[in-house]
Amino acid sequence: MCGIIGYIGKRKASEVLYRGLKRLEYRGYDSCGIGVVNNNKLIIKKDVGKVEEVAKKEGFLEIEGNIGIGHNRWATHGKVSKENAHPHTDCLDRIAIVHNGIITNYKELKEELIKKGHKFKSETDTEVIAHLIEEELNKFDEYNEENYIKAVKNALKKIKGSYALSIINKDFPNLLIGARYESPLILGIGENEFFLGSDVTAFLDYTNRAVPLEDGDIVVVKNNSYYIENNGKIVKRKEIEIKWNIEQAEKQGFPHFMLKEIFEQPETIKVSAKISSEEIKEVAKLIDKFNKVYFVGAGTSYHACLYAEYLFSKLNKLVKAEDASEFLNKSVVDNDTLVVGITQSGETYDTLKALKYAKEKGAKTAAIVNVIGSTATRIVDIPILMGAGIEIAVCATKTFTSQLMIIYRLFLEYGKIKDRNMNKYEQVINKIPNYIKEVLNQSEHIKNIAESLKAQNYIFISKGINLVSALEGALKFKEITYLHAEGMSAGMLKHGTISLIDENFDTIAIVPPKDSKVFSSILSNIEEVRARNGRVIAVTPIKINDCDNITVPNVLEEISPIVYAPAYQLLAYYKAVQLKRDVDKPRGLAKSVTVE
Ligand code: GLU
Question: How many whole angstroms separate alpha carbon 191 and alpha carbon 202?
Answer without folding.
Answer: 16
